[in-house]
Amino acid sequence: MDPKTAKPVMMRFGAIISEKRKLLRMSQEELAERVGISQESLSRMEKGVIAPRFERLQLFAEALECSIADLFRGEEEAGECAYTIERLLSPLPRQAQEEIVGIVATVARLAAPR
């Protein structure tokens, strides 16, 4: 892959795994342990500095309760969903936001393909 093409893909992958990890209220240490890498490597992946090995993609998908395709979805899709969620939650008190995020995380776990 051309380095000019690879960097945006790595950045998008990093942003998506960071977003999904936070939605599941998972620490970097916990996710790193689940996929068998160091916390430092995960941090570098989330920043788009390095890419995961191909064989780790399924481990990321399982740990983040999504498909491998979800780890590479387009920025427009991710941005649109994030914007909608932010718009709906921002007027609510912080505690209500946290409770709703917990409910959504539970529903996402239940709806995830097994």
Automatic annotation (TrEMBL):
Any GO CC annotation of this UniProt entry: cytosol
InterPro entries registered for this protein in UniProt: Cro/C1-type_HTH, Lambda_DNA-bd_dom_sf, TransReg_Diox_bact_type
CDD domains found in the cross-reference section: HTH_XRE (cd00093)
Keyword DNA-binding in record: yes
Domain of life per record: Bacteria
Domain HTH cro/C1-type: 17-71
Tagged with keyword DNA-binding: yes
Keywords assigned: DNA-binding
GO molecular function: DNA binding; DNA-binding transcription factor activity
Name assigned to this protein: Helix-turn-helix domain-containing protein
